[in-house]
Amino acid sequence: MSKPDGALKERRLKDYKYLMEYQTRWNDNDQYAHLNNSVYNLLFDTIINKYLIEKCDLRPSDTGPSALAQPIALVIESHATFLRPLSFPSRIVLGMRVLKLGKSSVTYEVGVFGPLKEGNQRPAVVGGFTHVFVERDTRRPIKSMSSAVLEGLGGVLANDAPVPTRL
């Protein structure tokens, strides 16, 4: 049986279509002097939501009447495979892509690379999560994401990912 992280170790920065730099902070480290596992979930959430806001017309901080009609994205699954440790002080790069795009759900993959000064092209961590877009008040899945969201997410669809049914 092959190790599940074998293919993940082969990921390269060029495999990701959206990139974001991050400067680790002192309080990101845990008692073992490497980034705490919870920090990676924060990083995944940050790059994914930054992309949704910048490229998919998502406006999570809107509070007006139109905001109530907008669906929200809920995380239904998350994961991370740790390949090597990172720690403070380091500049790292996050890469994001979409692995699967459905009518109301999307699965993201995030690669964490660094430290930058060492030119690391192999990931330290590969993880991500799945969002389901739901009606804000009922929390039931929507029939279909808006064209702006589908087009935006289509822009970072992995080359080997299944093509969505409506784009």
TrEMBL record:
CDD domains: 4HBT (cd00586). It holds the Pfam family 4HBT_2. Keywords: Hydrolase. One of its GO terms (molecular function) is fatty acyl-CoA hydrolase activity. It comes from the Eukaryota. SUPFAM superfamilies: Thioesterase/thiol ester dehydrase-isomerase. PANTHER family: 4-HYDROXYBENZOYL-COA THIOESTERASE FAMILY MEMBER, NOVEL THIOESTERASE SUPERFAMILY DOMAIN AND SAPOSIN A-TYPE DOMAIN CONTAINING PROTEIN (0610012H03RIK). Belongs to the 4-hydroxybenzoyl-CoA thioesterase family. This is Uncharacterized protein. It comes from Serendipita vermifera MAFF 305830.
